[in-house]
Amino acid sequence: MRILATIRLALRALRRNKMRSVLTMLGIIIGVGSVIAAVSITTGATKQVEDKVSALGQNVITVFSGNFTSGAMRGGWGSAPTLTVADALALTQVPGVEAVSPEVRDRNQILANGLNWNTQVMGESPDYPQIRNWNMASGSMFGDADVRSVAKVAVIGKTVVDQLFPDSDPIGQTLRIRDIPFKIVGVLEAKGFNLFGQDQDDTVVIPYTSHMKRVSRRTFVNSILAQASNGAAITKVQQDITDLMLLRHRGELDFTVRTQLELAQAMTATSKVMSILLAAIASVSLIVGGIGIMNIMLVSVTERTREIGIRMAVGARGGDILVQFLVEAVTLSLIGGLIGIGLGIGASQIVSSLMKWPTLTPVSWVIIASLSSGVVGIVSGFYPAWKASKLDPIEALRYE
Amino acid sequence: MQTHPVIKLVELSKTYHTGEVDVHAVRSVSLEILPGEFVAIMGSSGSGKSTLMNTIGCLDRPTGGSYHLDGIDVSTLGRDALADIRNEKIGFVFQGFNLLSRTTALENVEMPMLYNRHRIPAHEQRERALKSLEICGLASRADHHPSQLSGGQQQRVAIARALVNRPALLLADEPTGNLDTQTSIEIMGVFQKLNEAGISIVMVTHELDIARYTKRTIILRDGQIVTDEAVANRMNAETELQQLRVAQQAVKLA
Question: What fold is seen in the domain B7-253?
């Protein structure tokens, strides 16, 4: 028996009992719909976190100095004066490291254009924009020559521009940090808030040499940023950096090496657990939907015993009857699955527009949902179909 | 050319084992039916005629003896093979019409071709179904559903369905049981016409006057053939109908 004719037959049988078909599909619709909606929402959330993490920079490995302990008082990471510029220069020799920036930070009151503003002043190397995946909005980054000459040049973030230069072009203007005049050579693109809610644009970046010798007068750096050439090598590079640093610090672990990857994993772990949980709950409702289909198919087989008898009398094999009912069950669950996918996407769109949550429906889950509703149809339709195929034609014809 | 019998039963028997008692529904029946015959099988209820009919129709297997249908030994075939034989060799007409409701007459007639082992293209299925309906005088009602048709018309659809796979044998189980006298004669007219065209027909009935439209009567009692004879004064459905109309006309005038 040709499959197309069988499908047409199944569709007609389902159309005959529209209300019943819809109610039967409801279990699958709700199951698939909730899976898709749940996955869309959690994937959207995960994607947002991942975007924020990658906004911190690409394949970045950060070396923090250890914590500084004085008596009973313990400072946080980066408080101990253990990392030096020499450490940073040594890291440039590690294979797989593409860019390095020693980082010095402090907060300062800065003046410009007759206005003042308290902001974070960072000492960095010219590699900083590349490491942080941060483009220039105008002007350009300072160069290696500026680092060597301890130049009084600065690159500023969008918030600083807004606060100090509300209606003029900051490029070429002067900005004073601790009364030292710095020439503004570039403006960084707006980057927004980071994962921790800090305004990343509220910053002034100057050469680390200038920061250490002119502003903070420090001999150590707070941390060192290193960029691995590719994501695959990041764990290896992290290990190499740790080994090298241990060697340089005479075996003393007075620093911490962290990767973006670890941060990303920590941040997305919760939403992953969440989506697994939701998928588990939803698969329970898929099973319930499958039982509903099996139930209705059993009723349908009993109701149509006579029809089965007639078909067998005119020459339908048991297999033909089996296929007919199986196709009916699968059609039922597949249509239910498709409606569920549509509703799930619709529901996640509504959530996204009402609650301003980003949602994303992964294609893989749409495929998984379609396949699993097909499987539910086969599994739940098989027993009723098999029962129908085993009917005795004489008995079936006699059935009232 | 030697003609094979369409049906050849040799000491066919069918025994049901129900509980402790064996019921011998058919007891070593031997029978030959040649192509072009029109046979009525008669008998009271419990005479084994239904069992014999089911066996001849390949819906059931005999427990003893052999059965050759159109030269093929079908007494040892499995379920699927029997289904194929039913599809290709036998056309069924039932007492209760057994049409699929909510399906048009045309689709009902097309249905057996769906299960044909040789694929029949859709357009050919349609042509054959329409032709079959035409032979049964119902081409104009092809789009009607069974509920929109009278009993006689429904039975014509059933006959058209039985013919569509060009069977060697037409099996009718009490085909006029649910019909009034005039419609019964009309249906017998269809059968006689088909028989004249060369189709072998075996029909189970318990109405004597219906059996008189056939060519040969077999009477069963307690699972055995007690009478097997040619119909002496065979009736012609055409002439009977003519007479009936005249009689009705007379009643109206009076």
Answer: Rossmann fold (3.40.50)
